[in-house]
Design goal:
Blueprint: H1 6-24, H2 29-54, H3 62-80, H4 86-111, H5 118-136, H6 156-174, H7 177-187, H8 189-194, H9 199-225, H10 235-248, H11 253-269, H12 277-291, H13 316-320
Helix pairs in contact: 1-6, 2-6, 2-9, 2-10, 2-11, 3-4, 3-5, 3-9, 4-9, 6-9, 7-9, 10-11
Length: 321
C-alpha cells in the first residue's frame, strides 16, 4: 500500500471500528469510557500544544476554555432544548461550546501581544480563576453544586470524530505557511516580526483555535460524565493537560496523541494505588524532564502525520533534453 493512502485508510478504518465495535458487545462500558477519555484528552493535548509547543508560549488556563465549552453545551441540551432530537442537538451543542470558548480566547490572545513567558502564565491562571469563580456564583448553572441531568450523548464514534477533526485542523495549520509564522514566534518573536511575520494575527489565530478545541473537548466531557461543576475545571485539570503535553512531546502531533494515551491509561491502571498514583505520574515527568526535556517525541512527528511534499512536474520538452 502506498504511504499517501495510509492516513485515509487509518481514518476510515478507525471510524468504522468506533461505530461498529461498541454495538458488538466486545467493549464493556468501562472500556468505552476509557477510549472516550483518551480521545477527549488528545483534543485537549493537541490544542494546548499549539500554544505551548508550536508557538512557544506558556498557558496554564486551558481548563477555563474547557469549562466554558462544557457549560455552554450543557445549557443548550439541558435547559434550552431538552426535547430536541439528540442527532441534531449534540453536534450543535459541541459547536456552540467550541465557539463560546473560542470567543473567550480572543481577549487572552490580545493580552499575549504585550506579555509572554511567566507573565502570560499568570494572566491565563487569573483567567482560569475568573471563570471558575464566575461559574460558582451563577445560580442558573447550579453554582458550586454544578449541573445535573446532562444527557449521555458522547459516544466512542463522536469522540473519535471530533478528535480527528482537531488533529486535521491543527495539522494543516502548523504545516502551512501561516503555521511557519507561528513557529517563528517560538524561536524569536522580534526577529519574526522584523522578517514580516504578522505576529499579532498569528498569536490571535493560535489562541482562538486552541481555545475552540478546548471548548469542544469540554462539551464532549460534559456529555460523557453527565455531571459538571466548577471544581472539575480547576488548576489541577490544567496541570493534568500540561503533563500530557510535556510528556508526549512539544510541537508534535504524534506526541500529543501519545501523551494523552499514556497519561489516561496509566491513570486508570494506577487507581488501586489510591493517592499514591499522584506520586507516580509526577515522578515520571520529573525523570523525563531530566533526560528528555522536550518530551518523548518533542519536535518530531510520524511520517504519516506529515503532509506530502509537492513534486513539481517538469515539462515534456525539458525532460527529453
Amino acid at each position: 500500500m502506498k504511504s499517501r493512502y495510509l492516513p485515509s485508510v487509518l481514518l476510515f478504518a478507525g471510524l468504522v471500528i468506533s461505530v461498529i465495535l461498541p454495538s458488538t458487545g466486545l467493549l464493556n462500558d468501562y472500556l468505552q469510557f476509557v477510549l472516550m477519555s483518551v480521545a477527549i484528552n488528545a483534543i485537549l493535548c493537541v490544542s494546548l500544544n499549539l500554544v505551548n509547543g508550536w508557538m512557544g508560549e506558556f498557558s496554564v488556563g486551558h481548563a477555563a476554555f474547557m469549562a466554558l465549552g462544557a457549560y455552554a453545551s450543557a445549557i443548550l441540551t439541558v435547559k434550552l432544548f431538552p426535547e430536541a432530537p439528540p442527532l441534531l442537538l449534540f453536534p450543535a451543542a459541541v459547536l456552540i461550546g467550541g465557539t463560546v470558548a473560542g470567543l473567550a480566547g480572543i481577549p487572552v490572545g490580545i493580552l499575549s501581544f504585550k506579555t509572554r513567558g511567566d507573565y502570560l502564565a499568570i494572566i491565563t491562571l487569573a483567567f482560569l480563576m475568573i471563570v471558575k469563580s464566575g461559574l460558582e456564583n451563577i445560580p442558573y448553572t447550579g453554582g458550586p453544586r454544578g449541573m445535573l441531568g446532562i444527557p449521555r450523548l458522547t459516544t466512542v464514534a463522536w469522540a473519535y470524530f471530533w478528535c480527528v477533526i482537531a488533529f486535521w485542523v491543527i495539522r494543516n495549520l502548523v504545516y502551512s505557511k501561516y503555521g511557519r509564522g507561528i513557529a517563528a514566534i517560538r524561536e524569536d518573536e522580534i526577529a519574526a516580526e522584523a522578517m514580516g511575520v504578522p505576529t499579532r494575527s498569528a498569536k490571535l489565530v493560535a489562541f482562538v483555535t486552541s481555545s475552540f478545541f478546548a471548548g469542544v473537548a469540554g462539551a464532549l466531557f460534559a456529555h460523557q460524565l453527565q455531571f459538571i461543576n466548577p471544581s472539575s475545571f480547576d488548576i489541577l485539570k490544567s496541570t493534568e493537560i500540561l503533563v500530557m503535553v510535556y510528556l508526549g512531546g512539544v510541537a508534535s502531533l504524534g506526541g500529543s496523541l501519545l501523551g494523552a494515551g499514556v497519561v489516561t491509561i496509566l491513570t486508570q491502571c494506577l487507581q488501586p494505588l489510591g493517592t499514591w498514583r499522584m506520586v507516580v505520574l509526577p515522578t515520571l515527568l520529573v525523570l523525563l524532564m531530566l533526560f528528555r526535556p522536550s518530551g518523548i517525541m518533542g519536535y518530531r512527528d510520524w511520517n504519516w502525520l506529515k503532509p506530502r511534499p509537492k513534486v513539481s512536474k517538469k515539462p515534456k520538452e525539458e525532460t527529453a533534453r
